[in-house]
Amino acid sequence: MTRDQLSRYFKLGTKRNTNRVITALTDYLSHVRNGHHFIYYLNATGRAYVDCKKVRKKSGHVEHTIMRNEFWLFYGCPSDWRNEVKVSDSKATIICDSLFMKNFRYHFLEVDHTQPMSENRTKIARYIELYRNGLLAEKLKHFPTVIWLTTSELRRNQLIEACKELPSVKVYTINEIK
Hints:
Elements: H1 3-10, H2 15-24, E1 29-34, E2 37-42, H3 44-50, H4 62-74, E3 82-88, E4 93-102, E5 105-111, H5 117-133, H6 135-140, E6 145-150, H7 153-162, E7 169-173, H8 174-177
Parallel strand pairs: 5-6, 6-7
Antiparallel strand pairs: 1-2, 3-4, 4-5
């Protein structure tokens, strides 16, 4: 998470106080610089302290993860949030970036950071196939809302256009949820 995300999640208040808390936790945290901000994650000592098995390392998906975290905070930190979930109806399969419930309805989150729009359209085609098959909607009693988080208005408009066949779609830009 970034410093601002940590501050909002733990309600740490000012940047100065957040920096003080992060400094006090340096034995348990590692960080990488990404643009103008640092991204913090648990090191081996921190993972052992909180009994966490998931190892985080810097990868090419850092910004993707930060955007996903931003949306998680924006939607009120759903407790049933799960990342990289494989969804299948035995005819079509998709791996969504996140799956969660809000107001008794399932939601799929897709984060569009740097992938080509052709990949997004391929994924949307699989969502449309899941919708048309009807098996997922039958099992869940509704077809989940597909939510996209993207980087620009142009990409938002392209995603809205591509998703016209889906019953419930929301598209946000990262700037509007921060």
